[in-house]
Amino acid sequence: NAGVTQTPKFQVLKTGQSMTLQCAQDMNHEYMSWYRQDPGMGLRLIHYSVGAGITDQGEVPNGYNVSRSTTEDFPLRLLSAAPSQTSVYFCASSYVPIGSGELFFGEGSRLTVL
Amino acid sequence: AQSVTQPDIHITVSEGASLELRCNYSYGATPYLFWYVQSPGQGLQLLLKYFSGDTLVQGIKGFEAEFKRSQSSFNLRKPSVHWSDAAEYFCAVGASGTGFQKLVFGTGTRLLVSP
Description:
By secondary structure, chain A is mainly β. Chain A is built from no helices and 11 strands. By secondary structure, chain B is mainly beta. Chain B is 0% helix and 51% strand. Chain B has strands at 3-5, 10-14, 19-21, 24-26, 32-38, 44-50, 56-58, 64-68, 73-78, 87-94, 103-105, 109-114.
């Protein structure tokens, strides 16, 4: 029972490099979302999706792109990494809108941008 | 816009003692309220949620929370803390005005359990 799987768990980038954080869920959830967690700031919503082909911006979308070609996958792309994007990233999925029910989280991806 | 305040950054409790973690929210309508727990190196797990009805809600692992509209609070409690409860706890509020497409988290309270 995998739930929400994030890869990689750890990544170090240089400023200006690009990368994709992968997120996959096997629960057939329509709703998926990406958060970043920074010390003293809790979790902040980056982007979310309400179904395949439909995405929208969250609280802190700048510097990140997403797409949702399948129900299972919701990758997060950093086009040109900056030190301010050093953070722990969490993907979550749910069967209801993200503010109205339980979110199922992955174990996180720790990203360091030098 | 909704917001969540968790005034305590760290709390230390002796094993076996009772626990109360504070959460205050700001939202004009009746909010959907949640408590999540994050163990070290892990993702978040839902402890309990409040949508409507009985203001005292029970969750997993022996936790409960009470919704007090007059105080805009949703404090988390446990009668007897176990060492395995050491973790970070997040309060969150969902907003109906956004079609529930928004969930705002507090900054978290880290619980330390002393022997």
